[in-house]
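input
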Amino acid sequence: MEDLTKRQSEILDYLVAHIAAKGYPPTIREIREAFGLSSNRGVVDHLRALEKKGRIRREKGSSRAIEIVQGSGSTDDTGRWLEQVRRYPVAGRIVAGVPAPPMEEDSAGFVIGGGLFRAEGDFLLEVKGDSMEGDHILEGDLVVVKRVERCGNGDTVVAMIDGEATVKRYYRTGDTIELRPANPSYEPIVFGGGGKQHCRLVGIVIGVIRRY
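output
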């Protein structure tokens, strides 16, 4: 199958992401604006090239009638990526510092390709605070969280403490659980052995997304 040019690959990736996020393809005008093209003719030429090279199918007479060809064998495995892509909801914001009130709900979401993280996550949380900066989790980052009931020592976790939420590293020794920050300005939070008594594990952090 004939290789794509750089711009054709970029447009194909844009089509895949748009369909995954919204359930339908973009219009020619939306593609033109996304890539800063000067006219619709340029978009049409790129779409014709993608169709000729077997990456998409188009239906005449409809501005949104674009279908991605599965298993099209593109150089970046776009067909396989489309099968794995999913939309992650942003469940809210979580404090990397002292525990804060429960996570706020947020209707936004992000489309992320499959295979990017070591496991499949369930939702995203936006980080506020700097207690995990030693682990390169910074304020404004999005952490990818997988819901679990158990975790191992050293895992970075999201936990609810007496109804308040935080992100920390998890360590357990006997009946004592310690949630450690990755910043010496903050103290560990200890459960059992005279420490706080109510801690609920929400999930483990399996990835971090940073927006620039």
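quick obs: The longest helix spans residues 6-22.
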